[in-house]
Fold:
Amino acid sequence: MKRAMYFLDQKDMPTKWYNVLADMPEPMPPYFHPGTKKPLGPEDLAPLFPMELIKQEVSTERWIEIPEEVQDVYRTYRPTVLHRAYRLEKALDTPAKIFYKYEGTSQAGSHKPNTAIPQAYYNKKEGIKRIATETGAGQWGSALAMGCAFFGIELKVYMVRISYDQKPYRRILMETWGARCIPSPSKDTKAGRDMLEKWPDCPGSLGLAISEAVEDAMTRDDTHYSLGSVLNHVLLHQTIIGEETRKQMEMADAYPDIIVGCVGGGSNFAGQFLPWIRDKFSGKKKDLRIVCVEPESCPTMTRGVYAYDFGDTAGMAPIAKMHTLGHSFVPAPIHAGGLRYHGMAPIISKLYDLGLIDAVAVHQTAIFEAGVKFARTEGIIAGPEPCHALKVAIDEALKCKESGEAKTILIALSGHGHFDLSAYDAYLSGKLQDFALPDKEIKKALTELPEIPEG
Amino acid sequence: MKRAMYFLDQKDMPTKWYNVLADMPEPMPPYFHPGTKKPLGPEDLAPLFPMELIKQEVSTERWIEIPEEVQDVYRTYRPTVLHRAYRLEKALDTPAKIFYKYEGTSQAGSHKPNTAIPQAYYNKKEGIKRIATETGAGQWGSALAMGCAFFGIELKVYMVRISYDQKPYRRILMETWGARCIPSPSKDTKAGRDMLEKWPDCPGSLGLAISEAVEDAMTRDDTHYSLGSVLNHVLLHQTIIGEETRKQMEMADAYPDIIVGCVGGGSNFAGQFLPWIRDKFSGKKKDLRIVCVEPESCPTMTRGVYAYDFGDTAGMAPIAKMHTLGHSFVPAPIHAGGLRYHGMAPIISKLYDLGLIDAVAVHQTAIFEAGVKFARTEGIIAGPEPCHALKVAIDEALKCKESGEAKTILIALSGHGHFDLSAYDAYLSGKLQDFALPDKEIKKALTELPEIPEG
Structure:
C-alpha cells in the first residue's frame, strides 16, 4: 500500500509556534513611524493591536506557547494533511518525490485562519469588542470573519469596491460568519468620504481600505485593527504549518531537498519554511533550497530593492525594511490577488538579503498550466496563488527527470481555488493574458521611498 | 485535550464495500424495462454499463472487494475525517454528543467521487473510451469529470441549460478536469434537436438531459452511460463512508443512537447508514434511529407512495419500485438542487417500507438557519443539501437538552456549499422563500405511474 496522505493525530499537533527571531543570523532592522519617521514603540501600536501581539512582534523567545483556547479552535480543522503526489510524479515521469502540505481544507479554504484565530483570541482576552480590517479579494476578511465568529467579536471589513462588486462570493462568506462587509471607499470614515467627494465612482484600492480600517480602529475605543500577513507575529502563527509538516515528513521517512511556496506578503510560505530553515542555520541541512515564487507582474524579490518603505500604498502604515517595488507600485490585474503586494515580509526580506533563500518570478499563463496539470492528476483545484508554487515544483521535478536525481520536493499548497474558477475559465478558453513589466515602471515607483534618518 | 477530529490511517481504510442486499430482510423487487414492461435483464443494461457494475447491481455477496486501482485513487482524499462538534454542542447547551463525517474535503467537494472513481475504473477496464452523462446543478458531472481524468476516459456532460447558464462555476470545474460540458437540450442528439425544434429557448430538464446522455451512449460503441445516485451499485460504492465512520466512532469510543442525513436519490446517506443498519438487523442495536431528511418541496418519502415508477422524468429509464411523487412531478426551485428528485433509491425505499428507517421533511428557510448556526460554530459552510441533516440533528440535540439525555448523534455531512453561496445570501438578506406543496399537485403526478403487469 502506497500511503498518499499523512494524518497527524490531534494529540501530536504542535503546541508551540516557532519564532525564527531567536535564531536569525543578524538582528532585524526596527520599524519606523510613518509620520515622525522615528523608531516605532509599543505605545504607537497599542491603539491598533493587543499587547500580546505587540510583544510577539519583537519577541526573541524561540518557542511561543499556543494558548489552549487557540489550540481548541485549531482542532476544528488541524492538523492539515501532508500528501504524497504519486499521481503527479507518475504523470511527469520523474524520479523526484513530491509532497504537498495542503491548507485548503480549513473552513475558510486557506492558511489565513492560522493567524485569524489567535488574533481574534488575543483581542478578546484584552476586552476588545470589535475589530476593523481591510480585504482585497476577500481571503483575509473571510478568515478573520470566522475567527471573530468563534470568539464573539464584532467585525467590520472594508473591502476594495471593485472586488466587492465583482466577487460577491467572499462577501457572502464573511456575512455568513457574521461580519459586516462594506465597499471601500465608504461614507463611514473621513478617508473614504474625502475620496468619494473627489471621485464618486472610485473603484478603491487596498491602500485606501487599510486607511479606512485603521481610522475606524483609531477613532473607537472598543475597536482594534488586524492585519493578515507581512508582520512578524503573523508569520509566527503560520509556523504551525511547518511544525506539523516536520512531523509528517518524519512519518513518511522523508526530508525535503527543496521547499517551494508562493509569496505575496509572505506569511503562508514562511509558515512552512521557517521551521525548516533552522536546520540550515544549524548546519544540519546546509544545502536545503527554499524557493519563493512570485508573479512576474509583482516581482518584489527578484526585481525590487531591500529598503525602508511604507507597509501600505497610502503611506499611513509603519515603515519597514523589506524587499519592495515601492509603495506606489500598482501591479497588473493578475488573478492571484493574494500576491499583488508591493512589499515583502521583513523576515523573508532579511533572509533573502542574507542569501539564505531563493526567489523566482513566473507568468500567470504558466501557473494555470501547472494548476490544470495538478487538477487532472491530484484532483485538487488550487488557488491561483499556490499555482505559482506548483509551476516551479513541476519545473524542479522535470529537472530531476533529466538529471536522474530523486530529490524530495515539498510544496506549500496554501489554499483551494473554488472562488477563482473564472481565472481557470480564462486560461482554458485561451483568454488569459501575461503582463510585461518594463524596468521604467519599477524605477518610477522606487523614487518615492520614504527617507529614514536612522535607516 | 479534547480530540475534535478523528483521522483514520490509510492502512486502515476499508478495502471492501458493504452490500446490504446480502442482509435485506426481504428480497428486492426487480427492475422493469421502460418500453416492454418486462423484467430487466443484464443484456438490457449492457449497452449502458460495464458488466462488473451490472453484476454489482444484483449481487448478494456481503462484501465486495474494492479494486486496488480504485483504492489507489481513493487514497488521494480518503479516509475522510470524522469530527466531534464540540463547539456546536456548547452553543446548543446540549448534553448530546454530536459527530459529523464530512465528505466535503474530496477534491470535488462532495461524496460523489466515491462512486465516480469506481465507475470510471470499471468502464476503463472493459475498454470503454468515452462516457456520457447528465448533470443538473453540476455536482455529479464534476465528480465524474475528475474520475474520468484519473482513468483517461473522455467525458461528455449534458448539463441542464438553465443551470449551465446560471451556474458557470461547476461547468468550469468539469472543463478544468478535462470534460466537455454542453447545455441540454443540444443539437448533438435527436432528443435534443426535437426539443429545440419545438421550443428553441427550452431551459432544459434533468429528464431531457438523461435522454440525451442515454441516446449518446446507445448510439456509439465506444461510449457508456453513467448514473450518480439511486442505483444499488452506486449506494454500494458509497458504503466506504459508513465503513470508515464505524472505525472512527470506535476510536472515539462512541456509538450512534441517531444517524441523520439528507436524501435526494439517497446514495450519500445510504453510504453512511447501511454499514450501521446491519446492527439493527442482527439485533445488536435494535433501537438505532436512522432519519432521512428531505425537502418539504420534494417529500418523496413522507408524502409519496411506494410504487413502480420510471427512474427519469421522460419515462426512458428503467422502472423501479420506490418511494415516488410520480416521474412527472416537478419540485419547486429550492436551492438544494441535489434533493430535487421525484423518486428514492430502491434500497432506501424498501427499508422505509419495512419501517426500519424514519423520514422527515423540512423547509429551506429552516435548513439555512441551521447552516448558518453550524458555520458560526464549526466554521464549515455546508451545502444546502446537508444543511437539511444539520437542521434535524440540531432539533434532536435540543430535544436532548429538554430531556437531559446524552444521546450520540451522527450527521452525514455530504459536502461543502462553496458553489451555493448565493443561497446563503438569499437567506441572510431575508429573500429566501419557502414553498407550500398542495396535496393536489402530488395527486396529479401520481396518476401517471406506469402499470407493471407483474408488479
The two ends of chain B are 57 Å apart (CA to CA).
